[in-house]
Amino acid sequence: MKNLNIVPFVSVDQMMKIVLEVGIEPLLKDMAAYIEADFKRWEIFDKSPRVAAHSIDGVIELMPTSDGEAYGFKYVNGHPSNTKSGRQTVTAFGVLADVATGYPVLLSEMTLLTALRTAATSAMAARHLAPSGAHIMAMIGNGAQSEFQALAFRAICGVDTLRLYDIDVEATQKCTRNLADYGFKIIRCATAQEAVEGAEIITTVTADKQYATILTDNMVGTGVHINAIGGDCPGKTELHRDILLRSDIFVEFPEQTRIEGEIQQLDADHPVTELWQVITGKVKGRTSPRQITLFDSVGFAVEDFSALRYIRDQLRPGNHTELDMLADPDTPKDLFGMLLRAQP
Amino acid sequence: MKNLNIVPFVSVDQMMKIVLEVGIEPLLKDMAAYIEADFKRWEIFDKSPRVAAHSIDGVIELMPTSDGEAYGFKYVNGHPSNTKSGRQTVTAFGVLADVATGYPVLLSEMTLLTALRTAATSAMAARHLAPSGAHIMAMIGNGAQSEFQALAFRAICGVDTLRLYDIDVEATQKCTRNLADYGFKIIRCATAQEAVEGAEIITTVTADKQYATILTDNMVGTGVHINAIGGDCPGKTELHRDILLRSDIFVEFPEQTRIEGEIQQLDADHPVTELWQVITGKVKGRTSPRQITLFDSVGFAVEDFSALRYIRDQLRPGNHTELDMLADPDTPKDLFGMLLRAQP
Known about the structure:
Two copies of one chain form a homodimer. Chain A is α/β, with parallel strands linked by helices and 344 residues long. The first copy, chain A, folds into two domains: 147 residues, 2-Layer Sandwich (ornithine cyclodeaminase, domain 1); 179 residues, Rossmann fold. Chain A is 33% helix and 25% strand. In chain A, the strands form three sheets. Chain A has an eight-stranded parallel β-sheet with strand order 9-8-7-10-12-16-14-15. Chain A has a seven-stranded mixed β-sheet with strand order 2-3-4-5-6-1-17. In chain A, helix 2 packs across helix 3, helix 2 crosses helix 4 and helix 2 crosses helix 10. The longest helix of chain A is centred in the middle third of the chain and has 19 residues. At the A-B interface, helix 1, strand 3, strand 4, strand 5 and helix 3 of A face helix 1, strand 3, strand 4, strand 5 and helix 3 of B.
């Protein structure tokens, strides 16, 4: 019963060390298994749309969830103009806690962890939805999330060929350079149209906060799987509406996706399938090689919960910091006495 | 533009040092001024009831708010059976962030800080509501919050006499012992009835999670101010309903208090006054020496926000820890490159 005051903390530096020690591809694979396990027990989770505080410059959100034994939440911001001042558009941290006592058991950076869990979720979904044997992926948007997506699709789906496009040529160069040692065949494309040619999986992961049309209807052939990551808040979409109408659409949590995802362009009763139902086998995912499947991903609290669970299970002496975060008086009723006894 | 990765962290130990360095009474007085300033600009705050995750053993809550420039939230649990395992019933931590960038600017323990802000809020409210010249306070419930209440009422309202009662005699002994050097006249009472005799202010601050009746109607004479702290969640009240019917009731945020406060015993349209309206002078507080005023306090996010603002203004080199909590890649789009370059 000692050290009740301590909460383990994983800093950015420690997170990088954990990732490099496990290896990024094994980690993405393991984390996808944690996420898949939580999607399998989707119904037991306490789910609610995120709690958002909007301002002119961006949004700050809290994303809580619980499986009845553990409770997790993520703090995450989205501020598109942050890059002007050298800051990240998105930063995040999160906490895992014990439901029985309410005591936090992990505080972790989640900027890197969110990039990892987003990629692991995308690839896990694609394993259930993409055409079998798919190994060529177009990736439109080559920013901060792109390399994580590429490696997750390699580790989890066997993707070995990348067709890259970004309106910012430097982003594509950076992505190519960062992935140079991972054995992909990489084709840098001059247009989004060129990138999707021959691709079996199309990942859209751009960052513009507006209604954009990264893909038009004529660009998308039959049989592909679309992994739509970038459209993730009200007013921000990437796909032309006509593509959505031709696709079978899979989502995380409809209540949230209808507000934030590509399907904000559709009627509120447009049919969508919840991904967890495919994963548990309740509903079929891909039913024909000509079908267009679309994972309209916005990111959901359960995925962060799975990622925090994974990191908690990686805690070893030396790979995290012990934070004196909880008051632990000698007797619980004597909080003031603890203060008195701290007097020099 | 350096150290964008750093978030200042105030641990429990560092919080105790800040409190002892400033001095507990001056700190309570200063913090009450921050809280009062925020009540004065109540209307600009983004207010919503807390987001609660209930379980058999207790509750975990997130309490966010924002004034448009800063954003704050508190994580707090309430687990009455925690004391059996030597844990605190309530622990808390919180974050203050910059609305313009979404970047956190402070992470702080809030178990001690919540005790301080609760006491400061009570005394600040009493300064507006208690009979003038009141200096005798009954305090029913002598647990973890009691000494903080006593000292806040001394620093802010001039209370010099305490009439103490708790069903647990040891709690009263502990409270008496802890306050021995602060110059109060302390009367230990055998019953709640005895404690309220002659008191001008009655503070109820018990912890039982049930409908309790700490005060019955016959015990409360005209002209007193009741500071009701303990009734703060659904199913937990301290006062007999008849007392409420004889009192003018002041609350923090009616939407929350009607669910959690003493007034959960009353009709949903029973008239109450919002404390901020008294503080801004929009509405009169006490209007006669015979009136019973009742502050039905449940604790609101704005008070935590004020407390975090206060602590941020106390940050000096050496009184906090710099946490590497935010990813800060050389170029914002190159999160993966940051990971690559961390390779040994």
